[in-house]
Write a structure and sequence with these properties.
Elements (H helix, E strand, L loop, with lengths): L17 H15 L4 H8 L3 H9 L6 H11 L4 H17 L4 H10 L2 E6 L10 H8 L5 H14 L10 E7 H5 L5 H15 L4 E6 L13 E5 L6 E5 L4 E4 L2 H17 L3 H14 L1
Helix pairs in contact: 1-3, 1-5, 2-3, 4-5, 7-8, 10-12
């Protein structure tokens, strides 16, 4: 989704967060129209207290309020665009450090190589599975925002120019029980469905393999047609996105070594079906 960003205040003394900026613009339009807060409230059908809270940045505007402001002030969508900014900014705030930049680059990637050791990768998660993974240590609202952002990421798999995704999982990531059995059944069936897509290849490193090159941890390599490739390295409190050619090349070699330890795509699909039937 393309976000149309409104102009930002140039005065460094003016609040620049989206919610506060909405309030600043609302006050500017109200005063330019020579309206008091009670007068504007009456015309828009809101209370003066609500107008004051929005102008001060204490309350974020609703989508309906933004549309009402556009209609009254004839601003051709200005307030609605600022409201979209507040909504999308809120989603970015709850994302782990380094992740917003990764999401942008992921949308542009032509080929994606994923290696995951602990859980099924976010790009392949069902909403229920994602909620179980993301809810730990977070408020219900923050968890829902993260799940929503994760589901939006998955839209790249359905594009006409969808990237080819090569995903390798440690068997432990596939078998780890996340949520109840129904959550796991839906997740495994979703993986099986994805594995049948022409642009998705899924392989599994069996537990019986023992030690192999993937034990140090998960990573994702993004390959681009007109930009340097990049690798995202996982961390407990965030992630790093590195595009240094030498580093990316080393992770590419590591991915090939891990792939040599994995089952074929056909055998991996058979294992997924076996695990699903056992639940």
């Amino acid at each position: 989704m393309e976000i149309v960003m409104p102009r930002r205040p140039r005065d460094p003394g003016v609040p620049s967060s989206p919610v506060e900026y909405f309030g600043t613009e609302l006050r500017a339009f109200r005063e330019a129209a020579s309206l008091s807060r009670p007068q504007l409230a009456e015309k828009l059908g809101y209370t003066p207290q609500w107008i004051g809270q929005v102008e001060s940045g204490k309350n974020g505007p609703s989508e309906e309020f933004a549309k009402d402001c556009d209609t009254y002030f004839k601003t051709n969508g200005t307030f609605s665009r600022i409201w979209e900014w507040t909504r999308d900014f809120g989603r970015l705030v709850v994302l782990p450090p380094g992740f917003p930049d990764f999401i942008v680059r992921e949308r542009e990637a032509e080929v994606i190589h994923i290696f995951e050791t602990m859980v099924i990768t976010g790009l392949f998660q069902t909403p229920e599975y994602a909620h179980e993974v993301l809810k730990l240590g977070k408020t219900s609202e923050a968890a829902e925002q993260l799940v929503s952002a994760r589901m939006e990421r998955q839209e790249i798999l359905d594009r006409e120019d969808a990237p080819h995704v090569f995903a390798i999982f440690d068997e432990g990531a596939i078998r780890r029980p996340i949520g109840n059995s129904e959550v796991m059944k839906r997740q495994l069936q979703h993986l099986i469905d994805l594995a049948e897509l022409p642009n998705v290849t899924i392989q599994i490193v069996p537990t019986a393999k023992g030690a192999y090159p993937g034990l140090p941890g998960a990573f994702t390599i993004l390959a681009f047609q007109d930009a340097p490739d990049a690798v995202r390295v996982e961390g407990h409190v965030g992630s790093q996105l590195v595009d240094h050619p030498v580093v990316v090349r080393k992770y590419g070699v590591r991915f090939d070594l891990i792939r040599a330890s994995a089952m074929s795509a056909e055998d991996s699909l058979g294992l997924l079906q076996t695990i699903l039937e056992s639940l």
